[in-house]
Amino acid sequence: MPRAPHALRVHDVHKSYRSRRVLRGVSFSLEPGTLAGVVGENGSGKSTLLRILCGQIAADSGAVEHGGSLGYCPQETVLNDSLTVDQHLSWFQAAYGLEEPARAEELLEELGFAEYRHTRVEALSGGTRQKLNLTLALMHDPDVLLLDEPYQGFDWETYLRFWDVAARLRERGRCVLVVSHLAWDTQRLDVVLRLRHGVATPGESDAMRAVAT
Ligand SMILES: Nc1ncnc2c1ncn2[C@@H]1O[C@H](COP(=O)(O)OP(=O)(O)OP(=O)(O)O)[C@@H](O)[C@H]1O
User: Fold this and answer.
1) What's residue 209's pLDDT?
2) Atom of ligand 1 nearest to the CA of 48
3) Does the beta carbon of 47 lie inside 6 Å of ligand 1?
4) What are the residue boundaries of the ABC transporter domain, all occurrences included (predicted)?
5) What is the ipTM, given to two decimal places?
6) Closest Cα to atom 3 of ligand 1
7) 43 C-alpha to ligand 1 centroid (Å)
8) Helix, coil or strand: residue 130
């Protein structure tokens, strides 16, 4: 089946919390094989936008279309303290209907936390919990990945490994949208969506601009 021309298409999305108008007409589209970032100040609406894109909350108006399956990694880890890493992987394997957890096994190695597979979540460090959170979002190999500050708590080496994983996903035609606070991340992105006053201004990353000029 041919791929949809757009991995993600967002048209005129509005969202208010009571009188607080957070999103005031967000529109953009992303193609498969794109590594994109959402940047903006605290409270500019980055997490709100991702929650709308994954369907966790509804927009007041506007439209969102996905060109394929979705993976969402929330900012807060959603894990069960009394289950081990392996038990989480088994649960999600069943929930996603996967015959083999092959992608999860790769991510255990790529993110470097295979040694904790028999450890309960309550005994994991914050960074290792976040690795599991990310693995659960990616293990069904979705077409569109929505990642809300996916590397919080990662040490530097794991942070770099995360960007290697993201780059390989892009090479395989996946569309990866990452919420970021860090100015230096924008160097790694194809597209930067700057969220300000409720609208997203798409542009090429600083690195791309530097190449173009
Ligand atoms: N459930 C909610 N009810 C009321 N207000 C909310 C709710 N969720 C978010 N807000 C408000 O909406 C605005 C945008 O919040 P959001 O979490 O989307 O911003 P953000 O850009 O992700 O912030 P940060 O960089 O701090 O993570 C903030 O003013 C926040 O207080």
Assistant:
1) 44
2) 18
3) yes
4) 8-211
5) 0.97
6) 17
7) 5
8) helix
